[in-house]
UniProtKB/TrEMBL annotation:
Pfam families: BPD_transp_1. It comes from Amazonocrinis nigriterrae CENA67. This is Sugar ABC transporter permease. One of its GO terms (biological process) is transmembrane transport. GO terms for cellular component: plasma membrane. The lineage of its organism: Bacteria, Bacillati, Cyanobacteriota, Cyanophyceae, Nostocales. CDD domains: TM_PBP2 (cd06261). It is a multi-pass membrane protein.
Length: 302
């Protein structure tokens, strides 16, 4: 009898405790459900339908036709190729540059606080403003071509030449995003125990050996984070490409990206179902590359 009462009391207490836990979780569940789960479910619904927006919203079920259209659409291939090229160049470059800047600032150079502020300024500046500034710099009669001509290098039509238009966006974004990752690396460097370097120095290790065998291995989890965030961010390239090309992805589709293609499908062609299918393609590519990176670059050690 006593055992039954004790079990009943324990069951009641356990129920109350669980209920309290779910009540504390309710705000998070509502936010995630409203702004993450429901949009994903609605995007799945849209991708399986042809949506008519003018004259009242109408949905026509077409199955996987939007997804099969992705294979046939030449614009999707161009946008995917441009996006992959952009990611493949920008992510490694900005990661290496961020690490170099962080190591330099962590070395105790004179006026390092002012250097930190100076380096970090591009990160807190509006992306649209930076793009407009660089469009002025990239003008055929702009600052960059004047500098190139002064040092005897060839000049380019950075805004109108398909061969260099995307590279102009790469240069701008590497310059503006590397300082953000520099701060992350700098915080990680300051967490490495100094006694490790002192012990290595006593054993005769020079600065390069300390960097290769102490700094880089201990920064591996941070590097995985930096690269993962960089991949996600670069795959979502939109505003710079939109401003550079006026929303067309020009010249000759040289700056067309997957996100810009999604914008065009929704706001120019009014094809919301097709835009949802492109968005799922983008999500699959990002997830696949992140998992590959995690598998081969030791993200599981984080």
């Amino acid at each position: 009898m006593f055992e039954m009462r004790r079990r009943r009391r324990y069951s009641k207490w356990n129920l109350t405790e669980n209920l309290a836990g779910y009540l504390f979780m309710t705000p998070t569940i509502l936010v995630v459900g409203t702004f993450v789960v429901l949009p994903i479910l609605y995007a799945i619904f849209l991708s399986l339908h042809k949506v008519r927006l003018l004259g009242g919203i109408e949905y026509k079920f077409i199955g996987f036709r939007n997804f099969t259209r992705l294979i046939e659409d030449e614009q999707v291939g161009i946008a995917l190729r441009n996006t992959l090229e952009y990611v493949a160049i920008v992510v490694p470059t900005q990661t290496v540059l961020a690490l170099i800047l962080a190591v330099t600032l962590n070395a105790g150079i004179r006026g390092k606080n002012w250097w930190r502020i100076l380096y970090f300024l591009p990160t807190v500046t509006s992306s649209a403003v930076l793009t407009l500034i660089f469009m002025w710099i990239y003008n055929t009669d702009g600052l960059l071509n004047h500098v190139l001509a002064f040092v005897g290098l060839p000049t380019y039509n950075w805004l109108g030449d398909p061969a260099v238009a995307l590279k102009g966006i790469m240069i701008m974004n590497i310059w503006s995003t590397a300082p953000f990752f520099m701060v992350i690396y700098l915080a990680a460097l300051q967490d490495i125990p100094q006694k490790l370097y002192e012990a290595a120095e006593l054993d005769g290790a020079n600065w390069w050996q300390q960097f290769v065998y102490i700094t880089i291995p201990l920064l591996q989890p941070v590097t995985f984070f930096v690269v993962a965030i960089g991949i996600i961010g670069t795959f979502q390239l939109f505003d710079q490409s939109y401003i550079f090309s006026g929303g067309t992805g020009g010249p000759n589709n040289a700056t067309l990206t997957l996100v810009l293609l999604i914008y065009q499908a929704v706001f120019r062609n009014l094809q919301m179902g097709y835009a949802a299918a492109i968005a799922f393609l983008l999500a699959v590519v990002i997830i696949a590359i992140t998992l590959i990176q995690r598998r081969f670059f030791g993200g599981e050690r984080m």
